[in-house]
Write a structure and sequence with these properties.
Chain B: Pfam families: Complex1_LYR. Chain B: InterPro entries: Complex1_LYR_dom, Complex1_LYR_ETFRF1_LYRM5, ETFRF1. Chain B: Belongs to the complex I LYR family. The complex is a heterodimer of chains A (about 250) and B (about 80). Chain A has about 250 residues and is α/β, with parallel strands linked by helices. Chain A is built from seven helices and eleven strands. Chain A has one domain: Rossmann fold. In chain A, the strands form two sheets. Chain A has a nine-stranded mixed β-sheet, sandwiched between helices. Chain A has a two-stranded antiparallel sheet with strand order 2-3. The longest helix of chain A is centred in the N-terminal third of the chain and has 15 residues. Chain B is elongated. With about 80 residues, chain B is an all-alpha fold. Chain B has one domain. The longest helix of chain B has about 35 residues. Chains A and B meet through helix 6 of A and helix 1 and helix 3 of B.
């Protein structure tokens, strides 16, 4: 039985204006709308489409994070995943949770669940790390296709079109494999209300990182989180002479 | 499903979808309620069917709007050189 493990991350919604906490130790997350990382939506969609084409038999959605991550797993189930696994990491450990921890968790789960394929979004829109797929591939020693914009499967071989600088690269890789989804891979479906309701009947297994033997203690220390610099207001100059004077003042000419 | 429950189902689905509306949930909720109330006296079954079809069309439009909005935002954020 071919199984796909798909990583889904709960992130602050893409439409929300991010604010830094006054103590500069992170960003404001309380009372802020969260949703599934858009690149992970693409990953789930791809896995579900493969299942619909009978190329794989089961799609498992995994999320590491606080208890609210279950909502994101629920969305994945509504999009067509068969079961969910929630690896609970909360509190200070979650704040310093890094791709290295998540990839160890995913690698371990892939072995336990006997997955043949791991699909993740190429990066999350909150920390923009873009490391998880690569590290999972490294830990498991599986071939890894990153930034996929097209995936074709024939038997146990995958033909993957990758988005690289200035063009596309087509590679063939053997399963088991790790893939990361780029923006143009597909157009994710909307998790409709009836499907969300039906998803409540699908099973979600709850685990802790300890159950999997993964140490999630902090490997980094957050020193400071800063807002990006605000663009300075421009001025309208009355004529060319003042423009030249201003430009000379600011050292542009 | 009876026509009555179809209408209720449509209202619930639209309410659910309004949570992602760019102008805010409250704006969406108010307008949704207004258009439903405007037609609450309708008894002609054929006309109601047409309205239901229109409602389902709006759902599809909203789905497309959200998808496009997300896609464009991501494209702007990650793929266009500034």
């Amino acid at each position: 039985m071919t199984r796909a493990l798909v990583g889904v991350k709960r992130v602050i919604d893409y439409a929300v204006k991010i604010r830094v906490k006054p103590d500069k130790r992170g960003v404001v997350t309380d009372g802020v709308k969260h949703s599934m990382n858009p690149f992970d939506e693409i990953a789930i969609e791809e896995a579900v489409r493969m299942k619909e084409k009978k190329l794989i038999e089961e799609v498992i959605a995994v999320s590491c994070g606080p208890s609210q991550s279950q909502d994101i797993i629920r969305t994945a189930l509504a999009m067509g995943a068969d079961k969910g696994i929630h690896v609970e990491v909360s509190g200070p450990e979650y704040e310093t949770l890094q791709p290295v921890h998540v990839s160890k968790i995913l690698a371990k789960l892939a072995q336990e669940e006997k997955a043949d394929l791991i699909i993740v979004g190429k990066q999350a829109i909150d920390d923009d790390s873009n490391q998880t797929a690569q590290m999972v591939g490294g830990i498991l020693d599986w071939p890894t296709g990153t930034f996929c914009s097209k995936i074709e499967k024939n038997d146990s071989e995958l033909t993957v079109t990758r988005e690289v600088d200035g063009g596309l690269e087509v590679v063939k890789i053997k399963m088991p494999a790790v893939l990361s989804a780029d923006l143009r891979l597909n157009e994710p479906r909307y998790a409709t209300l009836p499907n969300i309701m039906k998803a409540k009947k699908k099973p979600i297994k709850k685990l802790t990182a300890k159950d999997l033997g993964v140490d999630t203690s902090a490997r980094i220390e957050i020193l400071s989180v800063e807002e990006p610099q605000v663009r300075q207001a421009g001025v309208i100059v009355p004529d060319v002479d003042t423009l030249i004077v201003k430009l000379k003042e600011s050292g542009h000419v | 499903m009876s026509q009555r429950s179809k209408v209720i189902q449509l209202y619930k689905t639209l309410l659910y979808m309004g949570r992602d509306y760019p102008k805010g949930y409250d704006f969406f909720k108010k307008n949704l309620r207004r258009v439903f109330e405007k037609n609450k006296g309708e008894r002609d079954s054929e006309k109601i069917d047409k309205m239901l079809a229109h409602g389902n069309f709006v759902i599809k439009e909203l789905e497309a709007l959200y998808m496009l909005r997300k896609y464009r935002t991501l494209k702007k954020r990650y793929y266009e050189k500034s």
